[in-house]
Amino acid sequence: MNALLDALAGTGRSALAFCRVAGQLALFGLAGLFHVLRPPFYGRMVLRSMLDIGYFSLPVVALTAIFTGMVLALQSYTGFARFSAEGAIANLVVLSITRELGPVLAGLMVAGRAGAAMAAELGTMRVTDQIDALGTLSTNPMKYLVVPRLIAGTLALPLLVVVADILGVLGGFIIATLKLGFNSATYLRNTLDFLQTDDVVSGLVKAAVFGFIIALMGCFNGYNSRGGAQGVGAATTSAVVSASVLILAFDYVLTELFFSR
Amino acid sequence: MTPKLRVRGLRKAFGDKQVLAGVDLEVAAGTSMVVIGGSGSGKSVLLKCIIGLIEPDEGVIEIDGTDLAGLDREARDAKRAQIGMLFQNGALFDSLPVWENVAFGLLARGAVARREARARAEAVLAQVGLAASVGDLSPSELSGGMQKRVGLARAIAAEPAIMFFDEPTTGLDPIMGAIIDGLIVDCVKRLGSTAVAITHDMASARRIGDHAAMLHQGRIVWTDRAEHLLDSGNPVVDQFTHGRREGPIQMELRR
Q1: In this structure, what are the phi and psi dihedrals at residue B52, rounded to the nearest 5 degrees?
Q2: Would B27 disulfide with which of A193, B5, B112, B221, CB 3.0-4.6 Å?
Q3: Minimal Cα distance from A127: which residue of B?
Q4: Looking at the predicted complex, does its ipTM rise above 0.90?
């Protein structure tokens, strides 16, 4: 009986802790959005964050996209050949990349690279009193550290996804034409004929949401880290894991929204 | 005469632990107050409450006779903009070169253009004995003593009316500690600022402070001129300043 009560109490404590963190995260996000609209604005910090999140993530996102497009073409050929539907490979590659794989894989890669870096940087600033020091220098840490990253994340990821979409389709094109013997003009025509503006736009909207999530989780975990090096490490891990899970969860929610339109 | 800084009945608890249990403190304009106390006695918490980094549970904090809690956010921020702070570990911004660290407050207030801020930063660096070329270095390239000097330069760059020093000599050798103390005294006198320092370094306390106060069990238990630190007549202060193992502080630890 006692063991059952202990288990229930433990579950209750975990549920309460989860609710508390969810509430703190919601307040943190709302505070960030509120400060986006109020001066002062730190344009240099936004540009710096755009470079960190966008430009420096370009190689890893590009490689991920091109290999994903290549694998997708190969795998779909294996399946479609059984039904003599090889002609649909171009359609499948372009739809999968633009709607789904481009934004999700770019989001996961950026969460691992830039989200972790954000949490580590802010966490280190927290435990070395740098965030407190900002407060004594007439600077709101939320405005100076968090808002530029939220803006940069929201703007940079769609730009990365445009690149990922192009390279993902290119990967499929390379495999289809060089390895599977497709006619390049036919493959391109199939790709462009089947692609609709909504496919690309829905992917870019997803990317913007994912970029915001990555920046929010990186900043939230770093900003609230405690306890020295171990705390910073825990914050970094938490930022990556929570951003990755939220990206997949919101991917479903957004897909459901776009699908039901 | 209204003191520059007055703290009355300041209380702060973290969970069950009552760190500040009704602190009363006054600092006259243009003077230096050193608050001493053991590790974990709440000195840093007191400082952070005064400068607004921690919200106290109760109590009044007045600057120039104005209760900060009674002001709206903008007026409170304006009052706190008069404050400069030297953090224990320097708390320099890793991502910025030294000169931008020093000029950060000026740039943040939009008081000066970047070119002028750079010139001001170099002038302030010279005041703390650092060459202009140091301005281009990253904080991670500096020694502990140089980081403290840069932190001091950052604290005085905006010529604050009140300055706070959190353990200014911690981690420094005695000679560098004396140099930093000398720079602090020079800067405070030159700017005519009011200063509050917290430390458990007695040599530093006597060098920096006009007055001293002892924080013990969450309250100020003694205050007098700093030259009386070593012969205060208060058993708690005497034990602390002479570093004796036996006395009221140790007896409480044993209980």
Answers
A1: 90, 10
A2: B5
A3: B91
A4: no
